[in-house]
Design a protein that fits this description.
Elements (H helix, E strand, L loop, with lengths): L6 H14 L6 H21 L3 H15 L1 H17 L3 H15 L4 E7 L2 H10 L11 E7 L2 H14 L1 E2 L5 E2 L12 E6 L5 E8 H9 L4 H4 L3 H10 L1 H7 L8 H13 L2 E5 L5 E5 L4 H8 L1 H5 L1 E6 L2 E3 L11 E5 L10 H4 L3 H14 L1 H17 L7 H14 L5 H10 L4 H15 L19 E4 L4 E4 L6 E3 L11 E5 L5 E5 L3 H7 L8 E6 L1 H4 L8 E10 L4 H11 L4 E9 L2 E10 L2 H12 L4 E6 L2
Parallel strand pairs: 2-6, 14-16
Antiparallel strand pairs: 1-2, 3-5, 4-5, 5-6, 7-8, 9-10, 9-11, 12-13, 13-17, 15-16, 15-17, 18-20, 18-21, 19-20
Amino acid sequence: MSKDLRVIFVKLADRLHNMRTLDFKSEEKQRSIALETMHIYAPLAHRLGIQKIKHELENLSLKYLDPVGYDEVKSDIERRYGENKGFLDRARLMVEENLSAYNIKYHLEGRVKSIFSIYKKMFNQGKTFDEIYDFYAMRIIVDNELDCYAALGTIHEQFKSIPNRFKDYISNPKPNMYRSLHTTVMGHEGIPFEVQIRTWDMHTVAEYGLAAHWKYKIGEQAKKDIDEKLYWIRTLLESDRGLNDTDELIGPLKIDLFEDEIFVFTPKGDVVNLPSDSTPIDFAYAIHSAVGNKMVGAKINGNIVPIDCKLQTGQIVEVLTSTVSKGPSRDWLKIVRTSEARNKIRQYYKKEKRTENIALGKMEIDRELKRYGKSFSEAQKTEIVGNIATRIGLNDADDLYNNIGYGGLTISKISMKLRDEFERVINPEAGQDAVKQPQLQRSAKLYSDSQSVIIDSVENCEVKYAKCCSPIPGDTIIGFITKGHGVSIHKFDCPNAVAGMNDPSQADRWIVASWNDRAISPEKHIGNYDALISIFAIFNKTLLADITLALTDMNVSVSTISIFRKGDTCTVEASLKCSNIEHLRSIMSGLKRLKNVTDVVRGG
């Protein structure tokens, strides 16, 4: 897509065809494809302005994701439409008479709000079906902008307008180029309905979005115009993360596509759209990477503000820069909301701070290697890191250190490779163990717990997972030979394990254990292992519902969940089922993106 963005339209058409024929797939496949469509393809169609495809994808996805809710809303629509039979036709006739009286040329359409749109309002805003004011809608299409405002005047003259329900997207278009006038009025029968007013050109763009431009433009200039309008998605696709990590790419992509948007202004009056909860740092990098890199402060509506404050729609944002700025802080990576800002900060550190990155990367690697409890030389460390760099496609050890230092690669992503190389390079008898380890016979290996855990030197043993730390595949683990209950598996850094290994009376009962490759990288997320997490959030009455719904969307089973409130904040403790450490990190990453959630950490 980053080479030729027209591929996006082909992908959307292909996905629409898949959704229309989804009845022939298994139930599991239906939910998987529908969830992907709802999270990626429908928001993508929205950002491209292709409302015709967006609405159909949403309705089809809902049909498979929540068939009960879909049927309930559908029956409610049929019930209300039957109760108010003829209302839309009567209101339409009155509007036509008034428009004709003012000699306005028009085309008039009437419609009932889509099933998904009603479902979303009921769920997100906690409304009942009877509180949906724009259930009925009319669309007036006229010849020019002047007639749009003239038609609006006739509507407000004829019907009583509902306060705070007027939006002018003609003078303030949406980022996807959508332009129309929206107003909600009260019909003479006491039934509210929405009126949309637009020109024929606006209507074409609203239905087909950016794809509509090919109807009017050809040649290099057209391609240039379209590529400029699609710049926002190119910035997502051209991120350099060091590795092809699908989860880390899709996570930010879903945020940028799916989140509610805010609209702020530059001092010159240009509109910049950003995801909700964006900061002045996100704004600065949306303007240009050089502006973000030289940023030293920010003003909102003329007042100096902290650079981590959250922007709101309508604010005028000014970025304060300095030629002597030392560049962005690494802490900004924890503050920024957009993937564009995050990528540009990482690019800065990758190019400008290589020496500093290498030093930070070495510190991270040293810290991880020391956890293994065996001494090692500098030459051995260089061999270990060099081998890993080669395995993941980097040139040398310094490239690996640099990637870790600027944030393109995390220790957790290479922890298992690091452990494997460490065991291969370091002779078990070389040096003194930081913790006394038993001498092991590597030839005797038993695949335990359905081949999830490999226990060295112990045969026919029973395996159980310690509840004090709840280890899961991907954790560095160690086994403890219990009396009559087999081997208890602990995380290597579990406080109970650390204390036990330092107890001379127990030292010989601690044995080496590791995960089988199939446990670490299962074919699919089965969710056999218990994991504890703590969710820190700002309290609101829908928080628990939001969390459980997000977990349901991610197909995660919840064993227990409880909430502890303290003033305006709270902590949610949950026990989940996951398949491995990467699955858990993906779950935690999804929860962190919820509104009002400030942090998610692992318990145990």
